[in-house]
Amino acid sequence: MITRIEIDGFKSFLNFVLDVPPFLALVGPNASGKSNLFDALGFVADEITGSGGLLSAGRGLPAEQFHRVARGAPVPGFAVSVEALVAPEPGAVLPIRFDVGAEMVLRIPRSSGAVVSHVAHHLPEELLEFIVEDPEPGVTPRRTVQSWHRYALSPQAMRCRCSPAERGPLAADGRNLAAVLGRMAGSAALADLVADLAGVVPDVVALAPRLDREECAFDLVVDGQGSVPSALLSDGTLRVLGLLTALHDPDHPGTLLVEEIENGVHPRRLGELLRRIRHRIAEPGGDRPFRQVILTSHSPVVVAEGYRTDPDALIFLDTAVRVDPDGDRVSRVTVAKPIQPDGEPGTFVSPRQVRRYLEAAA
Ligand SMILES: Nc1ncnc2c1ncn2[C@@H]1O[C@H](COP(=O)(O)OP(=O)(O)O)[C@@H](O)[C@H]1O
Ligand SMILES: [Mg+2]
User: Choosing a second label site near 281 at 20 to 30 A (CA), which of 46, 85, 113, 127?
Assistant: First the structure.
């Protein structure tokens, strides 16, 4: 379970620190850095598993992952640290910390004797080299980052049949949903999943995974409609089903990173979905498989629900122009603001601001 994220010099982050609870909703304006935070975790995971965090960056070229400045010295490197609690064996909970970073340097032949210096961002990629710190190897770090699952569920992908061999954790786009449900067939976890789904999607009665000509498929049994094959289900139903499947999967505990939770969910049911998700959160080392959820949202329902039930689990991300007094560096950075009744102005969101946010959105 991720407990803390520190980012310095990656994308929109400079000296950014966020303590992460077991359930966290990130809200805030467009381009405030919500997805960048997930990208930073993706970088760490890719580095630890050896798949090359900078080269496999989903958005932008390697050089573009370094914090860009409007004025002043470019940022020559970045560091991302993640602290987590892990339970390598039942009952034993240990803290673990990853420190991963990268430096950008000019590609100068060693024989030239030139001093390698940091460079401006506008240099062509061919001239740049990226030195990535050797992350700690080892089974526990690798297992830990492999338990971080970022979901961008695609209804189209979830409608498809798939091979029974794809019964691992739910894929990022949900394309092996039928196989995961097949693996869960007959389990208590599947019954819980159906109960949660019925709380969000009206008239759901049951889920029926099946094998059809060696392929995994499933039907949703709907009151008054009978068995509806996956291909006919609505986008919203499939998104909620995919998310709940990842959340209930008994064989793959972990941290779910979910973008725009409200996508495809009726606003009246979104609060119920959040309550049901929260109900499934479990810390490592307990009787239940550990389950953490970090989600992003633009929905006032998420703000209202979070503010009402657990203000500590609601963080507003915003941007601010930062002027570095020493280096004369000027850039726009992501800032995290918790909800607090008072404190240093500009570093928190007050209950009055929350009310105004909700009124503006109503
Ligand atoms: N290397 C970078 N340096 C500074 N800002 C960046 C960098 N890469 C992306 N950004 C900024 O991050 C913003 C996108 O953030 P993102 O996390 O996708 O937003 P959202 O909160 O909507 O998910 C863009 O405005 C972009 O300018
Ligand atoms: Mg985003």
Answer: 46
Query: Of the residues 8, 12, 302, which should be mutated to test ligand 1's pocket, given the most ligand atoms within 8 Å of the CB?
Result: 12
- Mutating to test ligand 1, I would choose from 7, 10, 11 the residue with most ligand atoms within 8 A of its C-beta, which is 11
Same domain, 259 and 132: yes
Question: 279: helix, coil or strand?
Answer: helix
Phi, psi of 98, deg, nearest 5? -110, 135
Assigned token pair, 122:
């506008």
Q: Which of 252, 268, 294 is the last residue of a domain?
A: 252
Q: DSSP secondary-structure letter at 147?
A: T
Using the atom order of ligand 1, give the atom closest to the CA of residue 66: 1
Alpha helices in 149-256 (DSSP H): 155-159, 177-184, 188-200, 235-248
Q: What are phi and psi of 36, to 5 degrees?
A: -60, -35
Question: Are residues 67 and 103 located together in one domain of the fold?
Answer: yes
Per-residue pLDDT of the chain (362 residues; tens, 9 = 90+): 999 999 999 999 999 999 999 999 999 999 999 999 999 999 999 988 887 778 777 788 888 999 999 998 888 899 999 999 998 777 789 999 988 888 887 665 544 443 333 344 455 566 666 666 666 667 788 899 999 999 999 999 999 999 999 999 999 999 999 999 999 999 999 999 999 999 999 999 999 999 999 999 999 999 999 999 999 999 999 999 999 999 999 999 999 999 999 999 999 999 999 999 999 999 998 889 899 999 999 999 999 999 999 999 999 999 999 998 777 899 999 999 999 988 888 889 999 999 998 998 87
Q: How far is the CA of 41 from the centre of ligand 2 (A)?
A: 14
Last residue of some domain: 252, 282, 301? 252
